[in-house]
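BUG: 3D viewer hangs when loading the predicted structure for this chain

Environment: internal workstation, default settings.
Expected: structure renders.
Actual: progress bar stalls at 90%.

Input used:
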Amino acid sequence: MTMLGLCCGLVAIRFAFEGRFEQAAVLIVVAGVIDGLDGRLARLLKATSRFGAEFDSLSDFLCFGVAPGLILYFWTMQEWRGWGFAPCLLFAVCMALRLARFNAALDVGPVVKPAYAYNFFTGVPAPAGAGCVLFPLFLGLWFAQTDWPLLASAVRHPAFVGIVMVTVAALTISTLPTWSFKNFKVPRHIVLPLLVGTGLFAALLLAEPWAALAMAGVFYLGMLPFSVRSYLRLKREAEGMMEPVVVAEGPRSGAA
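Structure tokens produced before the viewer hung:
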């Protein structure tokens, strides 16, 4: 599955060269889905290995670092030549640094973390970073389909795309705690609204896929402040439980 995801990233680069940006964007989304499945499948089959972890990181670098940068460069950033290539280069470099940080943690060995920290990533993960950085492309394709040329040209402007790329690049190498959703438990009182929201998003994805993908990026970025707040709240609660309780002693009776 990792090899299949790598091939999706390589073909996406080819489509970007040919100006077939819709197909290139779809392949990056498919690579993100595969990346979410291959690790879980390996753990389920008890087939995890260091080779698999290294290969997965190399595939992630190409699919979510190099490919999105080249897609956006050929889509609009090449209009600014060297200045337009700089954000694409920065995004790929930051993605490489993020994945190198992850591989370095593997060499150190298993790190004992507080229980609450296992539900959080450090920084925006690679697939989410690729989806967020392609937000201008998703939005531009949607505006082009709905015959809004002014808005389509606005989101395609290299200045806007460059700001998005630099911002997402910084988020990938940041130390912000972001929800991993690996052991996420849905409270009972929000199960029904969550199911309804999921159904509405699936319907929008089928009817207007570019609009749905753009909204998913905005929704994910909007969750980051709540993720940080949740992490800090859990950290305070854990530290509060570890603080020793001081019991004041009253005056002792009797002779010393």
